[in-house]
């Protein structure tokens, strides 16, 4: 039902049923994205691209929960940030190879998602969102106080190390290749989740929870499952980012990070397959190229947010989907 | 003659902040019958349904289904026992297609839980044939691929019935299944209900009294949360208290 999230989570874009020829279109877009990823480093900085990809994956994971689970989390920074800490710590202090460090970060997010999720899903709507926020604040203060996170400094100079102990990732191009693979895998997994028997039940619960329950679905178990999946993938994004930027810091667990991923998803189009990627691209680009304006970035972001909510609630991709009458 | 009771309540009571919407209701539904629950607006019929299907926890009283005390069970688990309800306000999945609406119920019955997020949707196509048959049974073939949100109110009700039937429930609780339907649809739905009642038990709330008269084996009249009268249509409709309750409510 509409009241399962603080905002209406069934925008028109998500309303279009995916038919078989739409899947063919999606496949073409996936191929297109892969080709773009191959060509992009020729014209753009790999570091900028990697940032976009990490955030795009984060936003995709968030959108899985919001757009398809109908659950608005205000605390996704917790999974992104804690994963990034664990990844950075294991890579730097325990000598984990990058893939193992990323794995341990991701696993941390999964466990955290299971704990926080089982506390939050008992409540509906805005109460759910508030609990996720409160729990994320706890994660933030834990990160601020705990020894291993390095407090205000964070964990710096994290070694990128050698993939599988063999391939050095010190070079940005090698790192970029790894990030591309992680991103594509994450994106395709999310696409599969959305279009699976599980995803079908999820959409039903998002649409009308009491009805789904009356059909015998234990809605809370499905909500918890998608919460954990979303947190895990957010953790994958956070871990990867820690390796790329060789840094895990308080920024990643701060509530503003939770807000940023909401923004990316809304700008791109929640409940769309590709929207979060575009949203991440827009927001990261804005931050990168407007950085010179300092505090103005925040204000501009705020304006974009307000504009999105007021003018085009479907987001960029949602709008395109509406125009071409195909789910994207 | 021992009566074969499938669903029984005793002293069922629901209090909302001091207001008793349902007050000490004793209800016995016999297996294989169509049992109607009628009463003026606000009598507590929907609240009863919510209690029976565990969408509300009763303040007092017990509910037994197939000789099992289900008073403390969760809603989804009651549904799994074969006691399935429909809703007064048409309850469909608006952003799924008509076929998908029905299929989601089939999916639960035939596959159990679907936590398999790694499998493609394709595996559900095996259910499409059965889903389409049910869609046809309620006269929605022409809309099989439409989104449920696009259907008219009457068609949404029909879709809801098809979805409920997809679970092949042993007992159906229908809350005003024909509200908002045109004449033709009412007739078709009445026939459908009679057809599916063959090897099922049905408890039905309905305001359309001619439908109630023609369909139901037994009627319970509820007023102000309490059972006012019970019996077949002839008995109940002659009961002066029932007549008064209806007229009284009409004036209120
Ligand atoms: N959640 C609730 N909180 C407070 N009061 C409620 C609640 N649900 C129902 N009521 C009250 O309980 C009474 C019975 O409501 P109910 O919906 O069960 O009636 P009904 O017999 O189904 O009526 P109708 O024929 O109009 O559908 C009404 O007075 C209603 O206002
Ligand atoms: Mg009612």
Automatic annotation (TrEMBL), chain A:
Its main location: membrane. CDD domains: TM_PBP1_LivM_like. It holds the Pfam family BPD_transp_2. It comes from the Bacteria. GO terms for cellular component: plasma membrane. It is found in: Cell membrane. InterPro entries: ABC_transp_permease (IPR001851), LivM-like (IPR043428). Keywords: Cell membrane, Membrane, Transmembrane, Transmembrane helix. The chain crosses the membrane at residues 24-45, 52-80, 100-119, 126-144, 174-194, 224-249, 261-286, 293-312. One of its GO terms (molecular function) is branched-chain amino acid transmembrane transporter activity. It is a multi-pass membrane protein. This is Amino acid/amide ABC transporter membrane protein 2, HAAT family. It comes from Methylobacterium pseudosasicola.
From TrEMBL, chain B:
It comes from Methylobacterium pseudosasicola. The keyword Nucleotide-binding applies. Pfam families: ABC_tran, BCA_ABC_TP_C. Coiled coil: none annotated. This is Amino acid/amide ABC transporter ATP-binding protein 1, HAAT family. One of its GO terms (molecular function) is ATP binding. GO terms for cellular component: plasma membrane. CDD domains: ABC_Mj1267_LivG_branched (cd03219). PROSITE patterns: ABC_TRANSPORTER_2. The keyword Ligase does not apply. SMART domains: AAA. The lineage of its organism: Bacteria, Pseudomonadati, Pseudomonadota, Alphaproteobacteria, Hyphomicrobiales. Keywords: ATP-binding, Nucleotide-binding, Transport. InterPro entries: AAA+_ATPase (IPR003593), ABC_AA/LPS_Transport (IPR051120), ABC_transporter-like_ATP-bd (IPR003439), BCA_ABC_TP_C (IPR032823), P-loop_NTPase (IPR027417). Residues 7-249 form the ABC transporter domain. It comes from the Bacteria.
């Amino acid at each position: 039902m509409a009241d399962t999230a603080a905002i209406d989570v069934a925008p028109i874009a998500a309303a279009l049923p995916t038919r078989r020829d739409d899947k063919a279109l999606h496949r073409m877009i996936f191929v297109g994205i892969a080709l773009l990823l191959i060509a992009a480093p020729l014209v753009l900085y790999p570091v900028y691209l990697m940032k976009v990809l990490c955030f795009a994956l984060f936003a995709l994971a968030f959108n899985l929960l919001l757009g398809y689970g109908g659950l608005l989390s205000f605390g996704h920074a917790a999974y992104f940030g804690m994963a990034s800490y664990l990844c950075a710590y294991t890579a730097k202090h325990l000598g984990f190879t990058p893939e193992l460090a990323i794995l341990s970060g991701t696993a941390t997010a999964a466990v955290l998602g299971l704990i926080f999720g089982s506390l939050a899903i008992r409540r509906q709507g805005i109460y759910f969102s508030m609990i996720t926020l409160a729990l994320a604040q706890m994660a933030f203060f834990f990160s601020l106080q705990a020894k291993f996170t390095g407090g205000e400094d964070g964990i710096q100079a994290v070694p990128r190390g050698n993939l599988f102990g063999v391939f050095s990732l010190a070079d940005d191009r090698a790192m970029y290749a790894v990030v591309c693979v992680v991103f594509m895998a994450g994106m395709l997994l999310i696409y599969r989740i959305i279009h699976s028997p599980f995803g079908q039940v999820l959409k039903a619960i998002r649409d009308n929870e009491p009805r789904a329950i009356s059909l015998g679905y234990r809605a809370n178990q499905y909500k918890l499952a998608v919460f954990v999946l979303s947190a895990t993938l957010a953790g994958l994004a956070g871990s990867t980012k820690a390796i790329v930027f060789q840094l895990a810091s308080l920024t990643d667990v701060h509530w503003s990070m939770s807000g940023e991923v909401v923004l990316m998803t809304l700008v791109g189009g929640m409940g769309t397959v590709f929207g979060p990627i575009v949203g991440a691209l827009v927001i990261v680009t804005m931050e990168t190229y407007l950085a010179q304006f300092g505090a103005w970035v925040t204000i501009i972001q705020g304006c974009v947010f307000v504009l999105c909510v007021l003018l085009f609630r479907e987001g960029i991709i949602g709008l395109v989907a509406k125009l071409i009458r195909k789910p994207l | 003659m021992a009566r074969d009771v499938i669903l029984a309540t005793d002293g069922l009571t629901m209090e909302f902040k001091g207001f008793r919407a349902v007050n000490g209701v004793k209800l016995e539904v016999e297996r294989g019958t169509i049992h109607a629950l009628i009463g003026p607006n606000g009598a507590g019929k929907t609240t009863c349904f919510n209690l029976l299907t565990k969408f509300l926890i009763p303040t007092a009283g017990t509910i037994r289904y197939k000789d099992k005390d289900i008073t403390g069970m969760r809603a989804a688990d009651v549904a799994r026992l074969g006691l399935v309800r429909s809703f007064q306000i048409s309850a469909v999945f608006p952003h799924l297609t008509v076929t998908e609406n029905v299929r989601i119920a089939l999916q639960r019955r035939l596959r159990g839980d679907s936590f398999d997020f790694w499998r493609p949707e394709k595996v559900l196509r095996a259910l499409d044939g059965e889903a389409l048959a049910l869609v046809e049974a309620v006269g929605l073939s022409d809309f099989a691929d439409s989104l449920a949100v696009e259907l008219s109110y009457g068609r949404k009700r029909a879709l809801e019935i098809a979805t409920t039937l997809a679970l092949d429930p042993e007992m159906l609780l229908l809350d005003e299944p024909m509200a908002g339907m045109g004449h033709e649809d009412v007739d078709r739905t009445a026939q459908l209900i009679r057809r599916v009642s063959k090897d099922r038990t049905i408890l039905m709330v309905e305001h359309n009294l001619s439908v109630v008269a023609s369909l139901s084996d037994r009627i319970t009249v509820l007023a102000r949360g309490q059972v006012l009268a019970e019996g077949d249509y002839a008995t109940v409709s002659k009961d002066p208290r029932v007549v008064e309750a209806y007229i009284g409510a009409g004036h209120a």
